[in-house]
Amino acid sequence: MERTFMMGWSKATYFRLPITIIVLLPAVIFMIAEVPFIGIPVGGIIAFEVWLYYKVIHSNRYVVSDNELAVRQFWRKTKIYRIDRILKIEYVDLGYDWGRTAPNARFQLAIYFSRDYVKSVMPFRFGPVDRDGFVEALLESNPAIAVDREDRENDYLKK
User: Fold this and answer.
1) 11 Cβ contact list (under 8 Å, min separation 6)
2) How many C-beta atoms surround the C-beta of residue 110 within 10 A?
3) Is the preceding omega at residue 143 within 30 degrees of 0, hence cis?
4) Which of 71, 74, 78, 115 would be a feasible disulfide site paired with 59, CB 3.0-4.6 Å?
5) What does the pLDDT look like over 91-141, one tens digit per residue?
6) How many CB atoms lie within 10 A of CB 29?
7) CB of 138 within 8 A of CB of 86?
8) pLDDT of residue 44
9) Are strands 68-72 and 124-126 parallel, antiparallel or unpaired?
């Protein structure tokens, strides 16, 4: 069974688009009215950027199926991880909610893979909107995963 989870985003991500539109819209309207051969292409470029921003925010998702965890992002190659190689999952609270890269949600998951599968001691960060549902979907495929549900504040960075 395949389950899909949206990637979480910070508040700043959602505020950035309307603020940009509010700031640029009067200038674009003025340019289209006064100098249409410049204003129309500039308006088209801004409309494309707005569409692209919307597409990036709403197309990123995690897909859990059988023994695979797929991370699908707009204009990026889909990354697939094996669920049977996950050793541990920790809940992480990054403390503040502004100015991070994707997944830039405040509440994330630190997922540790076995060292023979991923050559890293650092966990991978996943930021689904529904953390509990995401963990339950992973546990359905691999019940041997150790889960620490206590929100840690950047503890995994100090290890």
Assistant:
1) 97, 98
2) 21
3) no
4) 74
5) 888 766 555 555 567 788 889 999 888 887 888 888 888 889 999 999 999
6) 12
7) yes
8) 92
9) unpaired
